[in-house]
Design goal:
Structural class: mainly alpha
Largest sheet: none
Strand content: under 5%
Distance between the termini: 29 Å
Radius of gyration: 16 Å
Helix content: over 70%
Length: 122
């Protein structure tokens, strides 16, 4: 027999689930891009690494907060969108690198989804 606890979580909306998926996908691609950046070395990559690290952490945390229905999710989504935009821009400074291009695309998609979630009540 199942009991519904007071304050139990409602099912995640399709939009929120898509945003969580976009965040987790972006997190994974950022981690892969960091590995690629480390192999390249050089001062320019350090700038990109900072953006990748920020984005990787923000997307993971944002997904976690949405999954636990944190009251801070909307604000976190807005911050995450900003981190993703910055990371996409940094990755595009290496337009000939396939890993960086893929990362920029994942970041843009995640930023778009997060902006939508930031504008909706969670």
């Amino acid at each position: 027999m199942t009991h519904t606890q007071p304050g139990s979580m409602t099912a995640m909306s399709r939009e929120m689930q898509e945003c969580v998926n976009a965040c987790m996908s972006c997190h994974t691609v950022c981690e892969e891009a960091m590995s690629s950046c480390l192999q390249m070395g050089g001062q320019a990559q350090m700038q990109i690494m900072r953006a990748l690290m920020d984005c990787s952490e923000m997307t993971r945390m944002c997904a976690d907060m949405m999954m636990r229905r944190s009251p801070l999710s909307a604000e976190m989504c807005a911050m995450c969108a900003k981190a993703c935009d910055m990371c996409a821009e940094a990755c595009m400074s290496l337009p000939d690198d396939q890993t960086m291009t893929r990362c920029a695309e994942a970041c843009r998609r995640c930023a778009e989804m997060c902006r939508k979630m930031a504008g909706t009540r969670m």
